[in-house]
Specification:
Blueprint: H1 11-59, H2 62-69, E1 88-91, E2 93-95, E3 102-105, E4 109-110, E5 113-118, E6 121-125, E7 137-145, E8 147-149, E9 168-176, E10 182-186, E11 197-199, E12 205-207, E13 214-219, E14 224-226, E15 229-231, E16 236-240, E17 243-249, E18 252-257, E19 261-262, E20 268-269, E21 278-282, E22 288-297, E23 304-308, E24 314-322, E25 328-334, E26 337-342, E27 348-358, E28 364-365, E29 377-380, E30 385-388, H3 390-393, E31 400-402, E32 405-409, E33 424-425, H4 429-432, E34 435-438
Parallel strand pairs: 17-28
Antiparallel strand pairs: 1-6, 2-3, 4-5, 5-8, 6-7, 7-9, 9-10, 11-12, 13-16, 14-15, 17-18, 19-20, 21-22, 22-27, 23-26, 24-27, 25-26, 29-30, 31-32, 32-34, 33-34
Length: 442
Amino acid sequence: MLKSSQSGFTLVEILIAMAVMAIGSLGIAEMLNNHNKAARNLDMGVARSGFKSAITGMIQNPANCLKIVGAENFNNFNAPNSSIRDPYKDISVLRGLTAGSTLVTAGQPLPGNSKLIAGQIRVEETVAPGPPVNGITKRQVRLIIPITKAGMANGERNIAGDSFLSDITIPMTLGIQANGTLDGCSPSATGCESENSVVTGDGRCKQVACPTGKIQAGVYSTAVTDADGLHQVGDVVCARISSHPAGLVDGNPKSCDRGYHLDNTGQCVNTTICPGQVQKSVASDGASYCCVHLSANSPGSSNDAQFNCPAGTNVEDAFGGAANSNAMRYVRVVGTTVEASCESSSGCHAEANCCRQYPAPFPTVISPRQCDTANHFAWDTGQQACVHQDPAVCPPGGFTASSGMCNKSVAHAAQCNCTGCSFSADPNPSNQGGECNVSAHY
């Protein structure tokens, strides 16, 4: 008789297996929890970077910079303390770009992101300010925005703590009026409204470099105001990369775009500079390649036609012809001489283009001044000056202008008259050439 046998896990083995499974489950749960917290931390880091990029981009525009921090009064900075090493000013809110809007408030979540909270916003002075210039004190500061992470819902700590390793820091320059209100604001650490300027010994901002996309074309020798604002003596002159030096306007270098040149009014134009010739092409600096078409016929019974292009020109497109189409021998160019030779004297013809490069003018232009029109002065573009317009004010009848006087030679003083004019006779006609002089018009 066979005996039946039973086999299986003992109770101890089952308990051990259950313990192992429980431990494994706990490990997996912890891994999932850490993964979720890491993903949350990553999202907050990306959001913080995005906020920093956004506010930095806004402040790049001085007008936006003024809107964002302009609501504060910057008359009094707090003294440094154990945690803040430089003079500072707390800011409660950064304004938005539209009236009444808020960009971020200290102690409150960032707009549209409840996981990030702004700490105490402040500006810290980085360089001791100099004396006011025209009532404005320039203060070089850094805008500091601490960002913290919102707490976990279950009370657990965020990965790497609730604070980021560094605050959002943006260098700025504030122009502060005597009453503490802002006159100007820019994202620059140079003490000027542009990163391309530096503060000089007299407290003014001197432009020493050009912004991206422009090149230095010289230095201002006279102050001038244009669409970019006031340029003072010693500031660099900036021009587009595609431009070239074209002349001087009021003593300052002037550049024009490719293919343009400066005219005598100080404007960049692309008009031809060819002297009565055809413009074939224009160089990048505004120089023109100009051509004149010349031709010659064989004289009398001669079989050849010949002419010379002006010295210094290039001979182009030379060709010839004969009255008898089969009688053409050759057309050749020797230096600047064009020759055509034919088999018979029935008629030979030669023609070609004589071309040369004419450099673009490099004029020195003085901008039109406000002339004393009441005393008959007007701006003369050719002379670049206010010129007295004598002919315009002298009466008809033989009077000529000279040194601000209208003169007319007469035989007798009694002939000094003019309808509607006030003339006085020369008291000694014999010594003064018998002239009648008038100065009432001047």
